[in-house]
Amino acid sequence: MNRILISGTNSNCGKTTITMALLAAFQNRGLEIVSFKSGPDYIDPMFHRKVFNVETHNLDPYFSTEQMLCDQFIRNCGKDLSIIEGAMGYYDGIGVEGKASAWEVAKSIKAPAVLIIDAKGMSNSAAAIIKGFKDFKEDSMVEGVIFNGISPMLYPLLRDIVENAGVKAYGFLPREEKYSIGSRNLGLITADEIEDIEEKINGFRELAEKYIDLDGLYELAKSAPILEASEDYKELIESSKSDSDKKTRIAVSRDNAFCFMYNENIEILEDLGCEVVYFSPLEDEKLPENISGLYLCGGYPELYTEELSKNKKLCNEIKDMIERGIPTIAECGGFMYLHDSIEEIPMVGFIKGNCIKTDKLQRFGYIDIKALQDNLLCNEGDSIRVHEFHYYDSENCGEAFMAKKASNGLEYLCCHGSDSLYAGFPHIYLPANPDFAKSFVSNARNWEG
User: At 171, is the secondary structure helix, strand, or coil?
Assistant: First the structure.
């Protein structure tokens, strides 16, 4: 259970860069590592998975209780080391109280936290910042600092300043623009889009090995206490498994256009006795055989509209299967794919209307959705915590659920629902309400095609 959480004083301070540098450096030492991301982020875990070939998972205190976070960490932690990357600033979350912050993750799983400070142009102010973070909460979990974007000449001064304030300095990373990785409106661009990704990662690794105290960080990770698991989750899964030895096959979209999927969603489907089979709407002309359920996850379909539209054979099969009642979840990008069109380019054609690009985020953030009617995932009145993050909008968002924003209580209608369908912009984290997963699997198990 060796673990550290890497967070920052604010967004864009370099925590993703330093997390990647640490993953590369510790992996180069032969350690078996798992990475985690606090919050609902898909991009960074996907990047870690593809670039470093490590298991990646999310730890989100909005979706999960403190004990659930511990259970999820225990289930998936690395053999030698787990590195958790925080989101935004360390204490930043929902509202004034900062709920669902990286700090809540660190506190819940008792992970020592190392803060990243972009310290260019600083001296004594760095000590004021780090001491403020350490003292802001009685159980802050802050145990160290790594500086980003400074020169080797400045580091000794900054190290002495913060260590005199009572916080251990674990090194720094100098600013190297040639190793920078671009981004788009949802986060980092994907690893497959970076031609020289291996060179960049090797550059990060070399910088970390030269300028960061890897031995000290590993000792800090080993100081984290043992966690105790609960039996609740195991009992829930055992009570819902089918008596049949035959596994229910669920087809899940996975390629460059559809790449946003929580590993925990796959795990709970498999725990419930499903066989998950992947397919590519970009490459495959037909769905996998003998499936009883369909899961179209989010991603970037808007970047591949021509390719998706040309694959008419698969579009027609998906539309036919949904019309025949195959249990289907389609979220965000998968929801857009089911429309008549995206930017007037034909898609599957099951949901009437067009999806259009806007110039700002639409309905962004954590929400709770409550069913206004019985549907594939739940009964009327049931609810689950989810999140939205998208620049595209639909002419037909649906009215099967009422959404309520966690930050300000704003309510609005969303999602399409029927006895065989959930489709909408909100991304679902199934462990947040396992009954939703159980209902989906039960319907898939009973579908006769």
Answer: strand
Q: Which of 332, 355, 397, 414 is catalytic?
A: 332
pLDDT band, residue 236 (cuts 50/70/90): low
What's the mean per-residue pLDDT of the chain? 89
Q: How far, in Å, are 5, 33, 158 from residue 148 at the CA level?
A: 16, 23, 11
The answer to whether 359 and 185 have CB atoms below 8 angstroms apart is no
Which residue is associated with the tokens 């089911």? Answer: 338
Provide, for the chain, the percentages of residues in helix, strand and coil under a 3-state DSSP scheme, each rounded to the nearest 5.
35, 30, 35
CA 365 to chain centre: 13
Instruction: Tell me 299's DSSP state.
Output: S
> 98's torsion region: left (phi>0), alpha (psi -120 to 50) or beta?
left
For residue 381, count CB atoms less than 10 angstroms from its CB and return exposed for 0-12, middle for 13-18, buried for 19 or more: exposed
pLDDT (tens digit per residue) in 77-125: 989 999 999 988 899 988 777 788 999 999 999 999 999 999 888 889 9
**Does residue 51 contact residue 197 with C-beta atoms inside 8 Å?**
yes
Nearest one of 410, 213, 448 to 324, comparing CA atoms: 448
**DSSP 3-state assignment of 417?**
strand
Q: Catalytic residue at 414? A: no
| Separation CA 161–CA 195 (nearest Å) | 40
Answer yes or no: are the C-beta atoms of 245 and 269 closer than 8 Å. no
Q: String of b and e for 18-53 (b: at least 16 CB within 10 Å)?
A: bbbbbbbbbbeeeeebbbbbbbbbbbbbbbbbebbe
Question: Tens digits of per-residue pLDDT, 365-409?
Answer: 899 999 999 999 999 999 999 998 867 889 999 999 999 998 888
User: Tokens 């803060």, residue?
Assistant: 115
Residue 234 confidence class, pLDDT cut points 50, 70, 90: low
- Give dist(CA 131, CA 169) in Å, integer: 12
* 35, 87, 362, 425 from 3: Cα distances, Å: 10, 17, 36, 34
Q: Is 144 exposed, middle or buried (0-12, 13-18, 19+ CB in 10 A)?
A: buried
Quote the strand ranges of 305-420, DSSP E: 328-331, 339-342, 345-346, 351-371, 383-394, 401-405, 411-414, 416-418
Tokens for 30, please give them.
């032969």
- Count of CB atoms within 10 A of residue 90's CB? 30
Residue 60's contacts (CB-CB under 8 Å, 6 or more residues apart) are 38, 39, 40, 100, 105, 429
